[in-house]
Amino acid sequence: MSEPIEHPPILIVDEQEKLLRLVAMLMSRIGFPDVDGVSSGPEALEKMRQRRYALVISDLNMEPMDGLSLLREIRGDDTLMNTPFILTESSFDFEDINLAHQAGADAFILKPFDIAVLKNKLKQVINRKPRKREAPIATQSTLEQEFPMLGKY
């Protein structure tokens, strides 16, 4: 008998409940049924310190902590720094993209997005090399060991 396939957990961060549900539905359709949703950056950090996520998809414009501040917090934390991170927004200007890139965003998705766009971005993000510090905590191989399904996307 074959072992059940484990689906890596995904965290969605968006103030709009409808968008949280939409992204969760899209993730489920492409093979990621284990999705948690929160409506703020502080909630996201709390969740991430309780559970290891294979990916964070966050809205850029939120209060009290926007997606860029959330990203900076994650990249500044040795335990969380290698968590793939996708920013979403209805429009990005050059400054947004530049700041997010400098902060360590792995990808950007314009809203509204569809399954094809999401799949494409997931492939880019999941196959990237890990970030390094002087003494790196997590490596790509560690992510793949924790979430073997990642190698299939």
UniProtKB/TrEMBL annotation:
Residues 9-126 form the Response regulatory domain. It comes from Methylobacterium persicinum. SMART domains: REC. PROSITE patterns: RESPONSE_REGULATORY (PS50110). The modification 4-aspartylphosphate is found at D59. Keywords: Phosphoprotein, Transcription, Transcription regulation. This is CheY-like chemotaxis protein.
